[in-house]
Amino acid sequence: MHIYLRELSKHFLNDFIVLMCDRAGWHGSKTLAIPDNIWIVNIPPYPPEMNPMEHIWRELRTQGFRNEIFQTLEKVDDRLCDTICQLSPETIKSICGRDWIVECF
Question: Rounded to two decimals, what is the model's pTM?
Answer without folding.
Answer: 0.50
